[in-house]
Amino acid sequence: MQHINLITGDRRFADMLSRVLSEDTQCTIHTHDKTGTTTNHHLHDPDVLIVDLFSSQDSSKNNLLLSLRNQYPHAVIVALVDSRGPALDDDLLFGADEIIAHSSDGQWLHEIKEHLLDRIALHRRIQRLQERLRKDLLEAQIVAKSKAMHDILRRLPLLAENLSSVLITGETGTGKELVARAIHYLGPRAGGPFITVDCGALPENLVENELFGHVRGAYTDAGPTTRGLIAEADGGTLFLDEIEALPLSVQAKFLRFLQERQYRPLGQTKYFTADVRILAATNIELKEAVAEQRFRKDLYFRLNVVPLQIPPLRQRKSDIPALIEHFLQKYGGESRKTRQVPLSVLQNWMDYSWPGNVRELENKVQEWLALGGAPVTSPASERAKAVPAPLPPLAEVRQAALRETERAYLQQLLRRTAGNLSAAARLARIDRKNLRNLLKKHGIQASRFRTSGL
User: Fold this and answer.
1) pLDDT digits (tens, 9 = 90+) for 44-74
2) What's the predicted TM-score (pTM) here?
3) Which of 7, 387, 426, 445 is 20 to 30 A from 67, comparing alpha carbons?
């Protein structure tokens, strides 16, 4: 049974809408006045909240949707507006998941009935999926209110059943590993291991050993025979985070495993097989890494069978209230049932761009709880003390350093050869075409060096 809350200043309108919806869906409908005050004694937290801004002509609708979003972070909020009246400010509509314009000519019920029923059915499907995720992932459930994340949630069961490789892309802190875990636990391999490899954190000379394992005596100081992470993931899923940091030498061997499901531990003469599903993630544009010859093109296509992009938090701000509620429940301790972020703080957090994405928001909620939930004196002061940008991941630092080193090398190369491309290509031991591409990438003109000499 679903609970639908209707906020309107028009009692006749409320009766008509309640009757129409009750004909086609099993639900209980609670009616409120235009300020959001319930007219029922027994109020349930709504699954769907319909807000009639059409009948509200005064200041009561200012911040109404945002206030309701703060009060009911998990509800689907549908705002009804007058299609014939002046356009409402975006600030008034901020917080709504859906906006439906209708007229007052008596035909509006037929116009929006199917739309509302579709939203209710969608909420049911998402709710069932989230319940399943909560059961499988315990505290690590995916919190989703935005359309973008709902679209991703709907794809997860299909991705889980299809054992093709999935390449998950998105900025740092967007929840790529959480999505990978959901794909694993929703599929037939849920009973098998889920092994995470942080490619960016492994020293280059140890990556191959970590993945494939080794036998005793395989190299100097090699200890007893050790199974690699591929062997550990047999029958389950191997998730490679920051896949762009995988060294080229290891990429070739990992490609063989993807193609034939065979690998050879260091120091071993025979190959072993492993039944492992591969999920990979990156926070950079891998196509650029391929173009720069830092990532194998054939491996890229093997990993990118099914691409899945996780949008940054700034592009799905309707998720923020529900995420805040989730983190309050997670970290609030005994006081979590009574603790609520003030509307002024919520507004400031909704305005913030969150460069560190969900991870940064989680840290901010923890900070707010640690400080006792002290109220913010003004919106400006809250923005002023917003948390600093997070330290970039190691892979991004490496990439930036590589670009700077490459550019400096090319400039020195052209100075040495006085801008002669043939001589520069021979000195760099690359062909002229690759040299031209590198110069174009860095915006370097060889002609500028032809009169400078050494």
Assistant:
1) 567 788 887 765 545 455 567 777 777 777 6
2) 0.60
3) 387
